[in-house]
């Protein structure tokens, strides 16, 4: 019985590992999902909490800016002194100067009420005159830079080169700092307020966003007004993509939430390290992570135990069975510490193979004895017709007193019977088989002078190879018996050659009538064609011996030639006794 190669999914190894994976993978995936879900929930909660905090602070900033807006609009609506600045100063210089003093005093008086502001200013476009009121915290250098920047804005507005909208609060950049600016137009006079943007961040600096967290103000182009190096180094994206929060950053991830101002073109943004957020996960998540990591660590160990306890012993048995399938009955499963069941199985397997080996040896010995008996029986099957014909030839030669041929005939018969009566011959050298066949040809050549010709060619390097005895002479004898007569000349050609790597082909072809169709069909199907009179028993005997000696490694093919005559091809394994070189051609012709 041979083992079929089963699909991989039907192997025990595959099913055990697959079953383990079916159990482990869903658990691991659930834990991973649960872990990711917990992280998402915590992030959402942290984002929502900080979003609410940012919205609260932005609302407070917008309320403060709204109060300044109301003040500026009320100032423009109630104070008629602005109309004086709307005309050319040279029309009434005294009144213009007096009005400027009044406006300066009023703004200076009102400025402390709006602690968020650093400056109020009034700009007369017809006179290109700027009036500023600064808080005590603004230095003279800063005041001069701000005044020049404000004049530049109005100059660009008049020239049309600056498209900055003056309808809401906007950011004015001086050097590396940003300043929040508001301008209201009253005729040809502008009244406005100005403050350092960093003052808006003072309350947020008290919020704990972690060691690496930041609260930032960003322009309408989402450029950070402070901590620019921090944003660039970590590659933090401050753009608003419409979501509640987003994760960004190069190496370390940051959670970014923001809120746009309702009063101006800027945003308030909180940047929170993701590591700080995950530190706040509940204890259950830590347990799940521990179980997940433990499962990943233990899984290879479980596979190792599964392989050592089950898969390796089974694989050891399978390897032994495959080697036995190849015909190696000397295989035994070596002892290896294992579970009791596999130890018992290995012992039973070794005992069973030993019994099979003993049984096979007994069967082979019986087959060999039977083969020897068959071979001896064949050797003793001397065709009485052949013996009588040989004696008749000697008698006829004696009548004509051809003593040389009588001697040759007697010598040929002696060699013939010596070969036939040799015992214990499972194999003979091809040289001996060829000489016996040529000797048989010579005997038959004396019987059928001028009606039998033959040739036999064989490479010299094959002469010492081993072949079963009578494997060639049997077919020659059958051909002469059925094809050669006194009426027609028949030629028998024998060619022996090596084919492939380790096989010998023996080809016997004659010029007779060939096999009858019914006999040829039975020969090709390896059916017994012998009968009670002994016809074709030699062919059956050769087939039988080849099967016993070579099993399925030998082959006999029977065909009829394209023109006429029978063709027999015998393929047998090459067994060399000793090497030879060269090429010999042995041929004979009838006399």
Automatic annotation (TrEMBL):
UniProt membrane topology term: Multi-pass membrane protein
Main location group: membrane
SUPFAM superfamilies: ATPase domain of HSP90 chaperone/DNA topoisomerase II/histidine kinase, HAMP domain-like
Subcellular location: Cell membrane
Coiled coil: 354-381
Keywords: ATP-binding, Cell membrane, Coiled coil, Kinase, Membrane, Nucleotide-binding, Phosphoprotein, Transferase, Transmembrane, Transmembrane helix, Two-component regulatory system
CDD domains registered for this protein in UniProt: HAMP
Species classification: Bacteria, Bacillati, Bacillota, Bacilli, Bacillales
PANTHER family for the chain: SENSOR HISTIDINE KINASE YPDA, SENSOR PROTEIN KINASE HPTS
Protein name: HAMP domain-containing protein
Domain named HAMP: residues: 308-361
UniProt keyword annotation of RNA-binding present: no
Domain of life: Bacteria
Native source organism of the sequence: Paenibacillus germinis
Annotated transmembrane regions: 12-33, 287-306
């Amino acid at each position: 019985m041979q083992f079929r190669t089963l699909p991989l999914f039907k192997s025990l190894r595959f099913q055990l590992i697959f079953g383990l994976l079916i159990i482990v993978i869903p658990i691991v995936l659930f834990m991973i999902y649960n872990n990711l879900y917990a992280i998402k929930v915590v992030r959402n909660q942290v984002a929502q909490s900080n979003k609410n905090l940012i919205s609260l602070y932005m609302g407070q900033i917008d309320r403060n800016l709204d109060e300044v807006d109301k003040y500026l609009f009320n100032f423009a609506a109630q104070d008629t002194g602005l109309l004086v600045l709307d005309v050319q100063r040279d029309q009434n210089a005294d009144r213009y100067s007096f009005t400027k003093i009044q406006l300066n005093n009023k703004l200076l008086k009102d400025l402390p009420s709006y602690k968020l502001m650093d400056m109020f200013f009034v700009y007369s476009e017809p006179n290109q005159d700027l009036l500023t009121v600064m808080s005590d915290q603004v230095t003279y250098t800063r005041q001069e830079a701000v005044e020049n920047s404000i004049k530049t804005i109005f100059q660009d507005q008049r020239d049309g080169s600056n498209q900055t909208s003056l309808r809401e609060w906007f950011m004015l950049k001086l050097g590396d700092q940003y300043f929040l600016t508001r301008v209201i137009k009253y005729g040809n006079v502008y009244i406005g307020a100005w403050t350092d943007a960093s003052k808006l961040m003072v309350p947020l600096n008290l919020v704990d966003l972690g060691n690496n967290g930041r609260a930032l103000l960003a322009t309408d182009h989402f450029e950070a007004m402070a901590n620019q190096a921090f944003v660039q180094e970590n590659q933090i994206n401050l753009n608003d993509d419409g979501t509640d929060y987003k994760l960004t950053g190069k190496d370390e991830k940051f959670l970014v939430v923001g809120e746009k101002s309702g009063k101006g073109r800027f945003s308030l943004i909180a940047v929170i390290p993701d590591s700080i957020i995950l530190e706040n996960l509940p204890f259950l998540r830590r347990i799940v992570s521990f179980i997940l990591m433990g499962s990943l660590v233990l899984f290879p160990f479980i596979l190792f135990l599964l392989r050592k306890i089950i898969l390796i012993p089974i694989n050891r048995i399978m390897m032994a069975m495959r080697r036995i399938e190849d015909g190696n009955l000397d295989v035994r499963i070596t002892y290896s510490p294992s579970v009791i069941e596999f130890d018992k199985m290995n012992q039973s397997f070794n005992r069973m193979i030993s019994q099979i080996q003993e049984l096979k040896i007994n069967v082979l010995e019986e087959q060999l004895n039977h083969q020897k008996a068959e071979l001896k029986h064949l050797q003793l099957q001397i065709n009485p017709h052949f013996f009588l014909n040989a004696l008749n030839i000697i008698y006829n030669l004696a009548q004509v007193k051809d003593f040389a041929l009588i001697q040759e005939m007697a010598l040929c018969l002696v060699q013939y019977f010596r070969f036939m009566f040799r015992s214990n011959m499972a194999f003979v050298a091809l040289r001996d088989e060829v000489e016996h066949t040529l000797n048989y040809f010579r005997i038959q050549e004396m019987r059928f002078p001028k009606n039998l010709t033959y040739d036999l060619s064989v490479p010299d390097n094959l002469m010492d190879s081993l072949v079963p005895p009578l494997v060639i002479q049997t077919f020659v004898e059958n051909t002469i018996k059925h094809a050669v007569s006194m009426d027609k000349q028949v030629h028998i050609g024998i060619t022996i050659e090596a084919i492939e790597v380790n096989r010998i082909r023996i080809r016997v072809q004659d010029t007779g009538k060939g096999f009858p169709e019914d006999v040829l069909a039975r020969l090709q199907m390896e059916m017994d064609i012998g009968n009670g009179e002994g016809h074709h028993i030699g062919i059956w005997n050769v087939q039988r011996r080849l099967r016993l000696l070579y099993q399925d490694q030998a082959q006999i093919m029977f065909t009829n030639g394209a023109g006429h005559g029978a063709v027999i091809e015998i393929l047998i394994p090459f067994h060399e006794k000793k090497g030879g070189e060269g090429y010999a051609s042995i041929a004979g012709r009838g006399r």
